Amino acid sequence: MALVIDLKPGEKILIGEAVITNDSQRTRLHIAGDAPILREKDVMQEGEADTPCKKVYFLVQCMYLANAPDQYHKRYFELVREVQHASPSSSFFFMQINEEIISGNYYKALKLARQLIAHEKELLDHAVQPAAE
User: If 0-12 CB within 10 Å is exposed, 13-18 middle and 19+ buried, where does residue 25 land?
Assistant: First the structure.
C-alpha cells in the first residue's frame, strides 16, 4: 500500500536523501517503497536543537534518515542518561523511544520524541512560573 501525502504549494518533503519542493499548486503524491520520508514541518535543523530533548529528537531524526543509524546510538544513549538524570519524569518517554529504536522503528521513535519535546516544554514552563503567594 502506497503512502499518500498532500503537499501545499511550496511545501518541501524529504524522501531518502532527496529534498522535493512542491510547485505553486496543491499536489498529491503516492509513494511506494521503503525510503525514509519526512515533511518539512517535521525536519529539525541541528541549530534548532537548543534544548536537551530537541537534541534527542535531532539524533533520532539522524538515525531515521541514515543508512547506518547505529552510528548515532552511542551519542543518543549518552544524552538519554543525562536527560533522565536531570528529569526522571522523562523515563516513561525514553522507555518507549528506546524500544522503537532497538526494534529499528525510527519513524515511530521520532513521533515519540516529539511528545518528549512537549513534555520538556511543560516542565520548563512550569519551572519559570512564579510561585503563588
Answer: exposed
> Residue 70 and residue 123: Cα distance in Å, rounded?
30
Tell me how far apart the alpha carbons of residues 112 and 94 are, in angstroms, rounded to a whole number. Answer: 9
Whole-angstrom CA distances from 133 to 126, 127, 129, 130 are 16, 16, 12, 9
Opening angle at CA 34, ends 30 and 40, nearest 5: 65
> Cell 534548532 sits at which residue?
48
Place of cell 544513549: 77
**pLDDT tens digit string along 84-124?**
999 999 999 999 999 999 999 999 999 999 999 999 999 88
Distance CA 45, CA 57 (A): 10
User: How distant, in Å, are the alpha carbons of 39, 45, 85, 100, 101 from that of 110?
Assistant: 13, 14, 21, 9, 9
